[in-house]
Amino acid sequence: MVSPNAGSKIMIQSYKHNGQFHRVWKNSVVLKGTESIIIGANDRTKVVESDGHSWVTREPAICYFDAKHWFNIIGMLRDDGIYYYCNLSSPFVYDEEARSLKYIDYDLDVKVFPDMTFNLLDEDEYEENKVLMHYPEEIHHILYQQLNVLIHWIRQGKGPFSPGFVDDWYEMYLTYH
């Protein structure tokens, strides 16, 4: 698999299980790109929803995508600390021709606060889409197993939750910005 080069700009595209387009972040800078991990950053980036509605992100964010895990992690730098938004999703794929990172969003999200407490979000949306889009039982098991891995990372301060991770990558982003 080809990976994007550090300093290049890519789009981040999410889809739903049925293949329907969900959301796109128009402009993110790649800070690290390998076959297994992509770390990107964006700030005040245009986001377009499936219904055509668009909005602009409010703060700098460091985005962590892993080809082995069924989640991605966005660390948002705010005045009162780093907040994380974690999507339960398929592992990413990188489309070199389209210059875009793509994944399937599986509805469940975890919001992590600066004190590392967290909330599981959108369980009702997950249950609804599980039926509507016929999520296979295997996907259900994978997602809940990966949710446990994600919670372990949060509690242990691993990966993007480790002290300094978001700040260090943000400093790198500023060299490209």
Automatic annotation (TrEMBL):
It comes from the Bacteria. The keyword Transmembrane helix does not apply. SUPFAM superfamilies: FomD-like. It comes from Oceanobacillus locisalsi. NCBIfam families: PRK13662.1. Residues 18-158 form the DUF402 domain. Gene3D superfamilies: FomD-like. InterPro entries: DUF402 (IPR007295), FomD-like_sf (IPR035930), Ntdp-like (IPR050212), SA1684 (IPR016882). This is DUF402 domain-containing protein. The keyword Metal-binding applies. Keywords: Hydrolase, Magnesium, Metal-binding.
